[in-house]
TrEMBL record:
InterPro entries: At1g68980-like_TPR, PPR_rpt, TPR-like_helical_dom_sf
Presence of keyword Repeat: yes
Matches recorded under Pfam families: PPR, PPR_2, TPR_At1g68980
Keywords: Repeat
Protein name: Pentatricopeptide repeat-containing protein
PROSITE patterns the record matches: PPR
Membrane-crossing segments per the record: none
PANTHER family for the chain: BNAC05G43320D PROTEIN (PTHR46598), OS01G0788900 PROTEIN (PTHR46598:SF2)
Family: Belongs to the PPR family. P subfamily.
Organism superkingdom: Eukaryota
Each PPR repeat, start to end: 395-429, 501-535
At1g68980-like TPR repeats domain mapped to chain residues: 55-209
Gene3D superfamilies: Tetratricopeptide repeat domain (1.25.40.10)
Length: 655
């Protein structure tokens, strides 16, 4: 009996190409309890000629139903399936609730073997006892088939429902079959099922089987895009009219495609009038499909006319097609037209485009960006050269898309050269474009291109320079190029649009000191003070550490003399004399043997109530001046001797 159900399922397909697909889905057999055993497709041998099935007693049937129910509760799928098969093989059926619970259970396991069981169960019930089948179970199975992407069985199931007059609302199966069709790239099979559903709905007058707009559009897509049939498409439109399904922009878009493909200009004019009549203001989708249709048949002249007509109708303010459309256009011109025609299209489009729209909405930008996305940057250059050869002005959209490609590929030297060309042509990039180019240049350590771009940015009178300025300074700092930082800062320091601060000079001084380039650090320090930037504690700490590393302690003494003048207890504070600065001066001056200056620092710290840890400086003295005798100093330098004694007393070295 189950084998007969299986054979019936195989006979459902009207297309011989679909039978092997369905057959492979159902193999190996799901009917044997022991899965490795191959099935036999022969009908079961009857137990006697009068009664081919064993009749179950009421007690036996109740026991099997109880076993089925308990197996489902305990998730014992194989035992549940065994009980169900035993019942149905004896011409008995579980209750409707149990039957549908089993089907739902089999569908939700996410297992192909049990999905086959669910499919076979529903096919069998459709043939033998459809009243037991709940519509929700069919929907659950279809959704599981969508997840498993089993296209042929899903379509066969719906056909089986039609054959056995098991009618359900269209949306129960249509959305699932649409998703499966889209995933598999063809709506041909959907069109057949859709037409059969509509035939039944009309003949049987079953309003609940009326297709919705989504299903109608899917059928139109199959007729127009896959079958490329005007007759089939218009039949779907007629069906929509019968069922009072109002078309939308998508509906007219598919019709535009097939009419353009077949060169039916009068039909195109008719549906254009309908688009306006239905009040659809956004005609982008219509023109996109129109362009695709012309592209498919190689009518490049009509492609150009459609693009330009769309611009005219939108007053040059609405030309933002999707990248997919621009890619189609580029590929079409490469196959059927040429770069000259493509350049001419951009030139003509620029004449119609409004200057008020954003750069990335220009046709030229879209076409060149499509070239880039297709890996055809060299063709973008050819378009640019061809536009120049034709004497047309090159719009900013063309340039910007090429510049973005340069950024992505880190071809920053070429980008900088192109920016110079853009500036010389009288066009002006926005700050965001400059920022992106400069960031790309710094990322690949092309510092000269970054400087060139920043100069162009300043000359273009861009207002927001700080973003790119910080990008350059940060990149140079990370790459340890203080000499370039100094040159760059010196070039821009007087530009009022750039807020240069002490911290910028500190970064350069710190980098020079860290690299041991103390003369450069001193030169930067002098330049900083000459331009009236006030050094702070970080400036002096960097210099102290640099001098200490080179053991230039006298230079540290000179720094102290300068700091001493800036630090005042009573007057205004020109410098924050904090613990870190006190510690740096004390430690290095002790190591250098300038004890008079050491005691000056100590006195100043006491005045300002800054805590000092004497142990660190005592250690520095013992490491560097352990053998220094007071008696010898008395004979040579009395003042130095007094300073030494004062330090020893302060540090506790005389105890």
């Amino acid at each position: 009996m189950w084998r007969r159900g299986f054979i019936a399922a195989r006979k459902l397909s009207s297309s011989s190409s679909e039978i092997p697909t369905l057959y492979s889905f159902l193999q190996p057999s799901i009917f044997a309890l022991k899965r490795p055993d191959p099935p036999s497709l022969d009908p079961p041998k009857p137990q006697d000629s009068q009664n081919p099935y064993r009749i179950l007693s009421q007690d036996s049937q109740a026991t099997l139903e109880s076993t089925l129910k308990n197996s489902l509760l305990s998730n014992n799928t194989d035992e549940a399936w065994k009980s169900f098969k035993t019942l149905t093989n004896c011409s008995a059926y579980p209750s409707k609730i149990l039957t549908n619970s089993l089907i739902t259970h089999l569908c939700l396991i996410s297992d192909t073997h049990n999905l086959k069981r669910a499919f076979a169960s529903i096919v069998f019930l459709l043939e033998k006892n459809p009243r037991l089948l709940d519509c929700k179970s069919v929907e659950t199975l279809l959704n599981s088939m969508k997840v498993a992407n089993t296209a042929a069985p899903a379509f066969e199931l719906v056909k089986c429902m039609f054959k056995n007059r098991y009618f359900v609302p269209c949306e129960v199966w249509s959305n699932v079959l649409i998703d499966i069709s889209r995933k598999n790239g063809s709506f041909k099979a959907f069109v057949k099922v859709f037409n059969e559903n509509c035939r039944i709905a009309k003949e049987e007058k079953l309003d609940f089987m009326t297709p919705d707009l989504v299903a109608c559009n899917a059928a139109l897509e199959g007729c127009c895009r896959d079958l490329e049939s005007v007759v089939d498409a218009e039949n779907v439109v007629e069906t929509m009219s019968v069922f009072r399904v109002r078309p939308d922009e998508i509906s007219f878009g598919f019709l535009a495609y097939v009419y353009a493909l077949k060169g039916l200009e009068k039909k195109i004019a008719e549906i254009e009038g309908l688009v306006s009549g239905f009040g659809f203001s956004d005609r982008r989708l219509f023109f996109r499909n129109l362009i695709s249709g012309y592209m498919k048949c190689g009518n490049m002249e009509s492609v150009s006319q459609a693009v330009l007509r769309f611009l005219r109708e939108g007053n040059g303010k609405d030309s933002n097609f999707a990248q997919e459309t621009y890619c189609e256009v580029v590929q079409g011109f490469l196959e059927h037209g040429g770069m000259k025609d493509l350049a001419s299209l951009i030139i003509e489009a620029q004449k119609l485009e409004s200057s008020a729209i954003a750069v990335d909405q220009y046709v030229g930008y879209g076409i060149v960006s499509a070239c880039v996305s297709l890996g055809l940057l060299d063709r973008a250059h050819i378009i640019l050269d061809e536009m120049n050869a034709q004497g047309g002005s090159v719009g900013l959209g063309v340039y910007v898309s090429i510049l973005k490609a340069y950024c992505k590929e880190q071809r920053t030297a070429e980008a900088a050269q192109l920016v110079t060309e853009i500036s010389s042509s009288g066009l002006q990039l926005d700050s965001g474009s400059y920022d992106s180019l400069i960031d790309a240049s710094m990322s690949c350590q092309d510092f000269q291109s970054a400087f060139s771009l920043f100069r162009d940015m300043r000359e273009a009178r861009a207002h927001d320079l700080m973003g790119s300025y910080l990008t350059i300074m940060t990149g140079l700092t990370e790459n340890h190029r203080p000499e370039l930082m100094a040159a760059f800062l010196d070039e821009v320091v007087e530009d009022p649009r750039i807020e240069v601060g002490t911290h910028d000079w500190n970064s350069i001084i710190h980098s020079f000191c860290k690299a041991g380039r103390l003369e450069d650090a001193r030169r930067t320090f002098r330049r900083m003070t000459f331009l009236q930037f006030e050094p702070n504690e970080q400036t002096y700490l960097s210099l102290i550490n640099g001098y200490a590393t080179a053991q230039q302690y006298f230079s540290i003494l000179m720094l102290w003399n300068e700091v001493k003048r800036k630090v005042s207890v009573d007057g205004p504070q020109r410098l924050r004399f904090d613990t870190s600065l006190v510690d740096a001066f004390l430690y290095t001056l002790v190591k250098g043997g300038f004890f008079d200056a050491v005691m000056q620092v100590v006195e100043k710290s006491q005045e300002m109530k800054i805590f000092v840890d004497k142990w660190r400086y005592k250690q520095a003295f013992m490491e560097n001046h352990k053998k220094l005798k007071v008696a010898k100093l008395r004979k040579r330098n009395y003042k130095k001797m007094e300073a030494l004694i004062a330090f020893r007393n302060w540090a506790g070295l005389n105890t």
